[in-house]
Structures are given as structure tokens and as C-alpha cells.
Amino acid sequence: MLRLRLSELELPLVHPFKIARSEESVARTVLYRVDWGDIEGLGESSPTPRYIESIATIRDWYAANPLRSEIPYRLETLLEGIPPAARCGLDIALHDLIGKDIGKPLYELLGLDPERTPVTSFTVGIADRELTLQKVAEIGDHPAMKVKLGLGSLEEQIDVISLVRSKYGGTVRIDANEGWTPESAVKILKELERYDIEFCEQPIPAGAPEKLRYIKERVRIPIVTDEDSKDASDLPALYRCVDGINVKLVKCGGMRAALAMIHTARAMGLRIMLGCMIESAILSTAAAHLSPLVDWADLDGPFLTARDPFAGITYQNGKLILPDGPGLGVRELAPVA
Asked: Per residue in 224-283, pLDDT tens?
């Protein structure tokens, strides 16, 4: 018999995390435990109001919709029709359980080489000059950084990147979180070209691929979507409008949906980043098992939390190191209800 248990995870952050549309100092996610005989599969979801899901909507979904199969291998039956964030945690827990049942890590079940994981960036949220410098100093020689922009005047945002570049020589990516117009995006990105920016993520509000094309045709910094690329069905509209996409398990609905996005993007000639919300090692490790398939990673959730009750992926000079235990390979460090 399959049994699902849900609880809330509270994850205090090292620093308040601010982006163009929100700020938080404590992240709250949903912990999934799926029991099958004496095996427990772990999963997690980090829902966001941006995609009209929450901890409450996840609880309500499962209260009204019992699991559709007693067999964890019936993934299509078990996952069909569930909203993305609610599906994400169940998808991950089932994959973890199946890996534990077989006794193999997920990357082995997927036929992937753990040596081919990319380097992850470390995200710096919007902050004043003093806190920005403190965050850059804490990053040290980590090889890649993603800087959040999208608030303040054009001059203030350029000054943030100038400040970062005065102290940091590694790879810099930027993310406006839908904070610009097409015209302001072109203007600021032209100014930022001199700072050797690897790419710009989601410069304008989602829903206007032709406006992304307008930006792409006028700047040299590659354009990557996030909010415009929720799942595989969003990608055809982005053809020739952008250079790459950001895949997040929570917004697309878990590992199976992420694989569909990755293969669709490759067929379209797009580059791919694996991203995350603010989350524990469960969700970040699940994404990391897919990382040998992508170009870039932004799986820094464990960097941003002050206390994580789980351990999974580790980092070696920024490179993702996958655990070799069965399933996710995640270990519980502190008891969680």
C-alpha cells in the first residue's frame, strides 16, 4: 500500500532574499513522505504565488484526491492531472522510492554520468551596497554568480554590476525577474555588455515572446527565459526568440516533466539551465540528478538556507557532486514531522 504524508518545512535564510517582486527571510516548503512497505521516498515542493500555488493548495489537492495506484512504478497513473507544484513533490518522492527499491541512485536509472554535472551559480539577491559587498565576499572564489536586478533606476542597476565586478572576476549572470520593459531591457543590457555577462534571465514580463525576440536582436548578451518557460508546452512559442530556458522542477511538475522540457529544448536548439526556488537539499538534489543533461545550473538552495534538515548534493569548487546512495541519496540530519 502506498501512503502519502505531507508536512511543512521551515527554512530560515542566511540573508533576506529579495527579487524584483518579493522578499523573504524564511522559506516554507512542503515535505512529502511516501511509504511503500518498509521503504520511504522523500519529496519536496516549494510552491510560489507567481504560479498560483501554495502550501494550502497542495494540502487541499491531496485531501480531495487520494493516490490513484498502490504501485509506485505506475508513474503516469499516479501523476496525471495533478497541478505542477503539487505534482512535483510526489514525482520526486516516487523516484526516490523506486531508486531505493532497486538499490540504485537516480542518475544510474536515468543512464547519466555523474562526472558530467555542471558548475552551479550562487545567487545574490537585491540589497544595498554594503550587503551586496558582504554577499560577494562570502561567495569568495566560487566560479559563478547570478545577480538579481529589476528594481531601481537604470543607473542604480548598472552600479550594482559595476560594484560586483570591482570585487569578483568569475562568471556573472543576471536575472531581472520580469522587472523591465523591452526598451529598458535593451538600454540596460547594452550598458552591461562591457561587464562580460554570461546571460540575462527573464528581462520582461512573461507572455510576449515577440518582445523577447525584439531584445535578443538588439543586444549581445544571451537571453534566457524562466517565467516564460514553465513546461514543455511553452517552448514552441519561444522558437528563435531566446537563447535558452530555465527548467525548475516546481514550476513544470517534477522530474518527468523536466525531462520533457530538456528534450524539447534540445530539439529546438536552445541551451538549458536547471534552476531552483529556495528549498532544502531534497528538491535541489532531485534537480541535480538531471544536471548532466544541461548546460548551466543554478542549484544553490542549500547555500541560501541557514539550517537544512537534509543533506544531499555537495559542491567541489562550484561543481555539483551527486550522492551515490540509492534513489536521491538524501539523508535526514534532523527529525522533521
From this structure: 999 999 999 999 999 999 999 999 999 999 999 999 999 999 999 999 999 998 899 999
Beta carbons of 276 and 284 less than 8 angstroms apart: yes
pLDDT of residue 201: 97
Q: What CA–CA distance (Å, rounded) separates 148 from 135?
A: 12
**The amino acid at 70:** E
Digit-coded pLDDT (tens) for 89-145: 999 999 999 999 999 999 999 999 999 999 999 888 888 888 888 888 888 889 999
Give the pLDDT score at 92.
Answer: 98
Residue 327, classed as helix, strand or coil, is: strand
Q: How many CA within 13 A on the CB side of residue 262? A: 20
In order, the DSSP letters of 111-126 are T--GGG--BBPEEE-S
Q: For residues 217, 120, 279 and 99, what is the CA-based torsion angle, rounded to 10 degrees?
A: 110
Helices and strands per DSSP (H, E), number in the chain: 12, 15
Sheet with strand 171-175: strands edge to edge: 122-124, 144-148, 171-175, 197-201, 223-225, 244-247, 271-274, 296-297
**Domain definitions of the chain by residue range:** 2-103, 109-332
pLDDT at 300: 85
Options 1.20.272.10, 3.20.20.70, 3.20.20.120, 3.40.50.2300; CATH for 109-332 is 3.20.20.120
- Is the sign of the CA dihedral 207, 240, 191, 144 positive or negative? positive
Distance CA 203, CA 20 (A): 11
